[in-house]
Amino acid sequence: MNDTETLKITTPGDREVVLTRRFGASRSLVFDALTKPELLRRWYGPSGWTLDVCEIDLRVGGAWRFVVLRPDGKAIGQKGVYREIITGERIVNTEAWEDWDAGECLVTTELTDVNGQTIFTSTILFPSREVRDTVVKAGLEHGANESYAKLAEMLESFEVV
After folding, report:
1. How far apart are CA 153 and CA 58, in angstroms?
2. With contact defined as beta carbons under 8 Å apart, do 65 and 52 qualify?
3. pTM summary value
4. 3-class SS at 64?
């Protein structure tokens, strides 16, 4: 396994989870993959899951909403609002679940260029330690690993040598 296939997950505080992964693609391409519905539909979610609804109003104050379908057919909705956008570099948004009143998370995603590759760092600040622990125990690591593996595969299909 090389650097681009390793997801690192840390919990630096009582309410945080930090996901870090290197992708073998430019920051602009990774940013597009995170913000364009036609690209998100190709990779978002673990294996067997599909992104059924992908609404994005990519501007500060704009809303987003995703509904993923699990292999068993259960729909899971998430929504939020963009608080900060620096194209190609940073996205800060809120995130909440439609069928679970756990409170709102704050997600800060930063993209750093390292020799033409991108270091993706997403920090999720949960409303409480209990919510963070529930999400982690529900399979955050497995789901993120599979999603980001699909993202890496899609990104590789765009990179031309």
Report:
1. 24
2. no
3. 0.93
4. strand
